[in-house]
Amino acid sequence: MCFMKKIIPYALLLLILGCGAAQSDPTTQKGIPSGPAGVKGSVGTVEKTGINAVPSGNTAPGEMFSDQRRVSDIMDFLASDALNGRDSGSPGIEKAAQYIEGVFEENGVMPYFKTYKDTLSNFNEPAYNIIGILEGTDPDLKNEMVLIGAHYDHIGTKRAVMGDTIANGANDNASGTTTVLEIMRYFSGAKTNKRSLVFAFFSAEEKGLLGSKHLAERLKEKEFNLYTMMNFEMVGVPMKDKGYLAYLTGYQMSNMAEVCNKYAQDKVVGFLPTAKEFNLFMRSDNYPFHQEFNVPSQTFSTFDFTNFDHYHKVGDENSEMDFEHMAQLINTFIPIIEGVANGAEQEIKYN
């Protein structure tokens, strides 16, 4: 999460040094096959109702599609010690990139460009966004794009705390990456999106939103017809006593929360005053798309400054995550995104 860097004085009051527990090697887990180039943990079939299973024809949108096991299987790989903190340009994030590419391939999601990899032009080391597209089913609406994104990089290693040096980035942002992978998996099987869905996994977010800046500029040059951008950032732990599931950055700038809640038939998305106070709208991967396209581009998060003490620490481990909460969030957002993708008009607008 890059957007936290300018609020460190406040955050230091909240963040306590965490000890990262040693993790088991996810490559030895039963039922998870080898990914590309020998990378273990690629999202594949697990028994009869495997993590790669498409929804059945009578599955209601979002109803019990994802579950704790599916979420934990993905998280156990993305936030494992084997990826060494997923620093941009590192061998660890390359494994994560191959993993995401494998999920795209297994679910029949086509590359948006010639390949899934979108090489960053603004970063010195080799680094890639991973981009796929599910074409819409409507001959007209398919030309309108809904971009769903999350950054998959983190900060690599830190000074050792009780022997642990790996900042695994479970909440920041393996949680958002997992959420978008599961949403993608749903729509790849359901094929219920009239508008085209573009799934973007950004590198170098922690270096200053470089991956999303690169992609936004590249797509703008190609006259990409962006309707809206929906970004997921730090959604691994629930908020307490808030009355809604997730908050939206830039809440008062658009009617996105209102539209989301309509399709969820509940108050799922709410307003977090702290997010406005620190202008979090400008500090995640939604912002470059706002700058380039001037269409509603906003981030959903459940990190509220009180419910997670391991931001950019080695303690950002899977042991701190709530997989049941994550599955609930995924299942809740599926009908929201389906509604946004299928509305007769472009309902989400800036105020």
What structural keywords apply?
single chain, nine-stranded mixed beta sheet, 9 helices, 351 residues, disordered N terminus, 11 strands, Aminopeptidase, alpha/beta, 15% strand, two-stranded antiparallel ribbon
Describe this structure in words.
The chain has helices at residues 8-14, 68-78, 91-106, 170-190, 210-221, 256-264, 273-277, 287-293, 323-342; strands spanning 110-111, 117-119, 128-134, 145-151, 157-161, 164-166, 196-202, 226-232, 246-248, 269-270, 297-301. It is α/β, with parallel strands linked by helices and 351 residues long. Helix 2 packs across helix 4, helix 2 (68-78) crosses helix 9 (323-342) and helix 6 (256-264) packs across helix 9. The protein has one domain: Zn peptidases (Aminopeptidase, 3-Layer(aba) Sandwich), CATH 3.40.630. A hairpin with an 8-residue loop joins strand 2 (117-119) and strand 3. The protein is 31% helix and 15% strand.
Quick summary:
With 351 residues, this protein is α/β, with parallel strands linked by helices. Helices cover 31% and strands 15% of the residues. The chain has helices at 8-14, 68-78, 91-106, 170-190, 210-221, 256-264, 273-277, 287-293, 323-342, and strands spanning 110-111, 117-119, 128-134, 145-151, 157-161, 164-166, 196-202, 226-232, 246-248, 269-270, 297-301.
Tell how many strands the DSSP assignment holds: 11
Number of helices: 9
Which structural class do you get from the secondary structure elements? alpha/beta
Count of the domains: 1
Q: Secondary structure elements and their pairing?
A:
Blueprint: H1 8-14, H2 68-78, H3 91-106, E1 110-111, E2 117-119, E3 128-134, E4 145-151, E5 157-161, E6 164-166, H4 170-190, E7 196-202, H5 210-221, E8 226-232, E9 246-248, H6 256-264, E10 269-270, H7 273-277, H8 287-293, E11 297-301, H9 323-342
Helix pairs in contact: 2-4, 2-9, 4-9, 5-8, 6-9
